[in-house]
Amino acid sequence: MHLFGHFWTTVTYFANLLTLSPINPPGPQQYPIPGTSDVGLNVPHPHYPIFKPPGGHPQGPGSDFKCNYSRMPGWYECSTPENRGCWLRHPDGREYNILTDYENDAPIGVDRNYTLVVNDGWVNADGLNFTAAKLFNNTFPGPWIQACWGDVSAELGDRYCIMIPTV
Questions:
Q1: Which H/E stretch holds residue 141?
Q2: Which residues, 6+ apart, have CB-to-CB distance to 52 below 8 Å?
Q3: Peptide bond preceding 141: is omega within 30 degrees of 0, i.e. cis?
Q4: Fewest Cβ atoms closer than 10 Å to its Cβ: which of 16, 133, 154, 165?
Q5: pTM
Q6: Dihedrals φ, ψ of 49, to 5°?
Q7: Which of 107, 39, 38, 110 is nearest to 74 (CA)?
């Protein structure tokens, strides 16, 4: 595959030379980041995107997490290792990307429910007892919360702290 890439680059170079196309067009140049892809365009349903987000756990707990935009028919994932600036794209040209005003416009995700019970307790995280710790579900650190852009919902348990200055 690597040999084919070099061959195709050479063919493209000579085609540009013969047609008098500019070899280095004006403006900033973008090149793909070398290496292997950590995420594939995996759209298991042809009408809406469901995919593993970039940077997710490759294996172990949480590795099966997927972004689910089943309420957005026609959209598809457009984030690649070479271009993380795009998240979702519609065939008519609309996009959710890094320029989207995320405070006023977001894709339609799914409900993700996490129960967080906040308790006072103590923890010995670095060799010293800290007796004024806030524990989430009696653990420190608390549970791993995963969500995708547009996902909503959180639920507090029966005990929660009104003031949590460092959360």
A1: none
A2: 39, 42, 65, 66, 67
A3: yes
A4: 165
A5: 0.56
A6: -90, 135
A7: 107
Measured CA to CA, the distance from residue 149 to residue 15 in angstroms comes to: 42
Q: Report pLDDT digits (tens) over 98-151.
A: 999 988 889 999 988 877 888 899 898 888 888 888 888 888 888 888 889 898
The two tokens of residue 135 are 């524990």
3-state secondary structure of 132: strand
Q: Is 6 helix (H, G, I), strand (E, B) or coil?
A: helix
Query: Side by side, which strands form the sheet with 95-97?
Result: 76-77, 86-89, 95-97
Can you give the pLDDT at residue 69? 92
Residue 64 pLDDT > 70, yes or no?
A: yes
DSSP code string of 10-79: HHHHHHHHHTT--SS-SS----PPSS--SS----SSTTS-EEPPTT--SSSTTTT--EE-TTSTT-EE--
The amino acid at 98:
I
